[in-house]
User: Which sequence fits this backbone?
């Protein structure tokens, strides 16, 4: 696929960056350059903020009837569905995720998210207040304003649309900074949005390093809110940088999620299949990865045998363009090296490597999925987010024991429970300190289901009605009738 270099997308126009510089985006499966991307700097942030501010203060979007915004979001979904092949290919070239996954999961899910929030656009309203006989009181829900959206590389289109769709439904104006490794679909989507009828300047895209462009967006006094998905460490930095302007902030950060298999799981085969998927899908580069697998001792050997069979059969490494490929490459050489360091660390720390952690003899940043068994929750491989296909299995004896270990983490994004005892399942669901609890499944996502983290996995919830809270301000109006 021949792709021309991408310029910045500001105010509905493709524009050169102030410095006129470009960087390369690379296909991680072939290590070949896909195309060049404009590299912005603080001057470009200034320019994009001026355009966004104008679109918010005097443009039509925040003032449109909800039904008109709904129609535009619906058209975006229709156009995106029509262009599934093109967007799926771009996403796969940029990330290395198997094309089949991009086409049959990411793209349909992205369209679903747009349709879901299209449905909300004309249903956002306040309440009337008990003002007493002398007055009338009511609340309005208004857009927050100019929202800076800073997104990661692991599922670029879906993770961006979780923010974009909800924020647009509520009438905001956006500055999107995608990750430098995966900017293609962000740019293409901004162009599609314009075609769908979004006014110029409402969805702007700018690329460049997080520590310059990202930082400048966060610190800018004319940016009202930051919606960030990425590493917990970056989240800390953004909080500090946003402090001076008291930025509204919502965070979707890292995880080290426990996936708990009891001996009375209703279907050990299904549990093994989804537990394998839970750390292998997207090459394990997934925030909700069930990377700490707790298995009840009495069923441990039988379960591990099933799990290893699924890892071997379902998650074969190969060319992402091939329909039989389960697992593509990791995102980059530097990330691969980072994940490999954890393989060394796991062995050094005394866990038993049952399979994987090897580099196949081919070009691209591939790594076979690794399963460490008989690990301890205090080991580094059980405490830190690896963000690769590495599973840490920890056997457990009792309910109390597993609750304590599952919650013994600084994160709290997701969790899984496999049991046929409904009392145990619901008791545990209450005890787990995590934003999502999956019972007898793992990794189920739905645009209507709020998603986000407890503790250092973030705050605020994306998707569902909850996300509308993140992108609206509440205004109270009192009228004196006396
Ligand atoms: P990252 O934090 O390195 O980068 C994310 C984005 O932030 C990029 O666009 C980057 O350029 C930008 N950035 C970096 N430093 C910045 C700074 N100082 N100021 C402003 N912007 C800055 O994360 P990543 O490596 O791209 O993504 C992987 C991480 O994302 C993992 O930790 C993963 O768990 C997390 N994640 C979380 C969720 C969720 O929903 N909770 C979803 C996907 C990924």
Assistant:
């Amino acid at each position: 696929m021949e792709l021309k270099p991408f310029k910045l997308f500001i105010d509905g126009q493709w524009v050169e960056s102030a410095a006129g510089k470009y960087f390369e985006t690379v296909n991680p499966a072939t290590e070949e350059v896909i195309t060049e991307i404009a590299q912005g700097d603080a001057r470009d942030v200034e320019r994009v903020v001026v355009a966004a501010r104008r679109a918010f203060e005097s443009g039509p979007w925040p003032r449109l009837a909800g039904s008109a915004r709904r129609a535009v979001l619906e058209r975006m979904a229709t156009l995106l569905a029509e262009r599934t092949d093109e967007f799926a290919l771009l996403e796969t070239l940029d990330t290395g995720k198997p094309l089949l996954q991009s086409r049959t999961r990411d793209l349909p899910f992205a369209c679903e998210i747009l349709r879901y929030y299209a449905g909300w656009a004309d249903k956002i309203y306040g309440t009337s207040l008990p003002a007493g006989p002398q007055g009338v009181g009511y609340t309005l829900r208004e857009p927050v304003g100019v929202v800076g959206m800073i997104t990661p590389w692991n599922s670029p289109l879906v993770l961006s649309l979780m923010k974009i769709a909800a924020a647009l439904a509520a009438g905001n104006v956006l500055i999107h900074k995608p990750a430098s490794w995966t900017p293609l679909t962000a740019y293409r989507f901004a162009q599609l949005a314009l075609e769908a009828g979004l006014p110029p300047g409402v969805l702007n895209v700018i690329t460049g390093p997080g520590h310059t462009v990202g930082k400048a967006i966060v610190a800018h006094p004319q940016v009202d809110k930051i919606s960030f998905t990425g590493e917990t460490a970056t989240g800390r930095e953004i909080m500090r940088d946003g402090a001076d302007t008291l930025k509204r902030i919502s965070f979707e950060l890292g995880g080290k999620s426990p996936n708990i298999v009891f001996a009375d799981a209703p279907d050990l085969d299904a549990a093994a299949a989804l537990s394998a998927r839970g750390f292998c899908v997207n090459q394990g580069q997934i925030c909700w990865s069930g990377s700490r697998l707790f298995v009840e001792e009495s069923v441990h050997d039988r379960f591990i045998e099933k799990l290893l069979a699924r890892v071997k059969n379902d998650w074969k490494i190969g060319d992402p363009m091939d329909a039989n490929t389960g697992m593509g490459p990791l995102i980059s050489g530097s990330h691969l090296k980072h994940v490999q360091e954890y393989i060394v660390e796991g062995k050094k720390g005394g866990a038993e490597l049952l399979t994987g952690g090897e580099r196949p003899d081919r070009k691209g940043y591939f790594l076979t999925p690794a399963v460490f068994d008989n690990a301890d929750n205090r080991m580094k491989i059980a405490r830190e987010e690896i963000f690769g296909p590495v599973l840490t299995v920890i056997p457990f004896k009792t309910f109390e024991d597993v609750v304590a270990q599952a919650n013994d983490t600084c994160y709290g994004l997701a969790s899984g429970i496999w049991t046929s005892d409904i009392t145990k399942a619901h008791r545990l669901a209450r005890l787990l300190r995590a934003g999502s609890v999956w019972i007898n499944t793992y990794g189920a996502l739905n645009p209507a289901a709020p998603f986000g983290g407890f503790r250092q996995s973030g705050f605020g919830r994306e998707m569902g009605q909850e996300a509308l809270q993140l992108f609206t301000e509440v205004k109270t109006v009192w009228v004196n009738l006396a």
Q: What stands out?
A: The CA atoms of residues 208 and 466 lie 30 Å apart.
